[in-house]
Amino acid sequence: MMQAPLPLTRELVLIGGGHTHALVLRRWGMAPMPGVRLTLINPGPSAPYTGMLPGHIAGHYARDELSIDLVRLARFAGARLIVGAVTGIERDARQIHVTGRPPVAYDIASINVGISSDLPSLPGFTEFGVGAKPLGRYAADWQTFREAVRAGHRRPEIAVIGAGVGGAELAMAMAHALQQDGVKRPLVTVIEKAAALPGLRPATRAAVLANMARLGIVLREHAAPDRITADAVLLQDGTRVAAMLVVGTAGARPQDWLADTGLTLNAGFISVDPTLRSVSDPAIYAVGDCADLGHAPRPKAGVFAVREAPVLYHNLRADLTGGARQRFRPQRDYLKLISLGGKSAVADKFALRSQGAWLWRLKDRIDRKFMRKFIDLPVMPAPELPPDLPLGLRETLRGAAPLCGGCGAKVGGATLGAVLADLPAAGRDDILSRPGDDAAVLRVGDAQQVITTDHLRAFTQDPWMQARIAAVHALGDIWAMGAAPHAALATVILPRMEPAMQQVWLAEIMAAATGVFAQAGAEIVGGHTSLGAELTIGFTVTGLLEDRPITLAGARPGDILLLSKPIGSGTILAGEMALKARGDWVVDALAEMARAQNDAAKALRAAHAMTDVTGFGLAGHLMAICQASGLAAELDLEAIPLMAGALELAEMGVRSTIYPENRQVAARMSLPDGPRTDLLFDPQTAGGLLASVAAAEAGAALACLRDQGIAAARIGRLVEGAPFITVR
């Protein structure tokens, strides 16, 4: 029997998208716990699987093949993803501080933030070196260096500081990659202040050292670096090691902010008990490399992070429900498969000492199997329908896509137009706008006031981001009319939750919205809140006009069409709901939607006609200008900017739920077939301004927009003729 969602009562926050947390998210998606809001905080939309890092550096794997897509995983788990850097935890208030946004509340938190191999205390390393962990900067610097070597702009000289297994693997991977690029004698030097490859069995160590020598790698043991320069590592004994790229792999350094949490630490790592809870705070867990297993010390290795996942998952749910926790018992030894640069590996476990291509294939199978856990996410069954249904309901639901959020959830233009056509005309002389205008224009004494309202069904689990986008979206009509934003009333419907959580959610929403309106020169002066089935955020906004309003009706033949934002948000949001959109596409789209248009509106103030592109898509909103102005339009399809990923998703057949109704305007268009054309009917949320600008002024307006970092484009023109759009 279907029932309404249960009220929210607890906040569970995962800090970091490491291997353990990724596996917990996957398990959570298969059995979510009602009443719990799950949040993941991570600096980026993806997390690397470090087991495949040497293979990526060697050229065996593309970057995407070792990236866990956290946006997709969070959607599967029903979790909120916050893309941002954690800077601290205020444990008394149970708040997590994240750069650029209000604190994040938690009842239970788990930390899985990994380690760093930066060497900030080594003079020159911050300026001229790069740590192998975290992966992002190192992978980018390596690709830049490799391309520069291929082009002859850099000497193939590399120094790796640290001769543990990780340092040896990366040194061999880089040497192999450069040799594959045609560099006959790359100079790769590994520097170690003690003995190389500690912890390996003698035969395994000998095999790795022999392979390093075969690749021409120079090993300097018992050598301590003194400082780094732009082209060398200077050792304490005065030796100069030539290096155009310096990579740090020595040791494991915890993230700096952990030192300020007040948690009990061991060498900077969070001390945990056998249940993986902090020994000093039962509301905080720690796993992976950032945790110190005081009850069973083990090296920093991904195998332990993976095997912690079932225990962490069980214990988090136990704490949320009042159940009993489990102990984590790590194994004493494990199979180490060490990459040798090419597609060969050496094994180290117990009496097993072997090497060869077959071991690399074994490692490859193990690694790919792990990554498939996050690619081939299980399809969860839909909720069962009641046995008695009215005629037509089952057919309506069969094959129907989930209802989109944002402007994808709007009522279609044809339906809306039919209703508005029956409304009586305004009978007051102080209402200056006409039906179909983006906003109402009212005369109040000697002033002209613009007023509009808009609200959005949530499409993200993050109320803070949803509020920012809803505020920008509501301001769109004010900017399009050429008015200065003045005041706003907020309308917020929260899902059912306990009062303490209501306060937290509303505080996040109002902080986000207040920032957007303040930047636009407006203030929130009141509003209304209620509880409902799902999150909805909207605003009624007023603006003041100093001059004539910019309406849909002022366009002139020969005007140039300028667009201030790329299109594709509806397709990307629909793709994210269907687990088909890449995480970086989604994060970029959200950032684009949250980008305010104060500067764009000022640059387009001289437009003859203007509208904001929202729910009816670019084609629908352009047709509104054509109809109001009595003109035809010509569009240059290739000139229309698209959001990253929108075309790829359109080619896959991804469409927003309002797309079929938006497509009806095609009856008054001449257009080619294809996915790029289909994006003309894609509903936009907080979309760009579409302006009709005099040809003589269009170039200057476009240059002004671009000078301000706005990715605006000239996409077509208006011509004489009945309302019709020709797409070329």
Distance between the termini: 52 Å
What is the topology, as strand order, of the major beta sheet? 31-34-30-35-32-36-33
Tell me the CATH architecture of the largest domain.
Answer: 3-Layer(bba) Sandwich
Principal-axis shape equals globular
Number of helices: 21
For the residues shown, what is the average pLDDT? 93
Biggest beta-sheet profile: 7 strands, mixed
As a percent range, the share of strand residues is 15-25%
- Write down the Rg: 29 Å
| Helicity, as a percent range | 25-40%
The CATH topology of the largest domain is given as FAD/NAD(P)-binding domain
Instruction: Please indicate the count of domains.
Output: 4
Structural class: alpha/beta
Text of the CATH class of the largest domain? Alpha Beta
**The CATH fourth-level homologous superfamily of the largest domain:** FAD/NAD(P)-binding domain
Unreliably modeled segments: none
Strand tally: 36
Task: Please characterize this protein's 3D structure.
- The chain has 21 helices and 36 strands.
- With 728 residues, the chain is α/β, with parallel strands linked by helices.
- The strands form nine sheets. A seven-stranded mixed β-sheet has the order 31-34-30-35-32-36-33, with helices on both faces.
- A hairpin with a 2-residue loop joins strand 23 and strand 24.
- It starts with 9 loop residues before the first strand and ends with a strand.
- The mean pLDDT is 93.
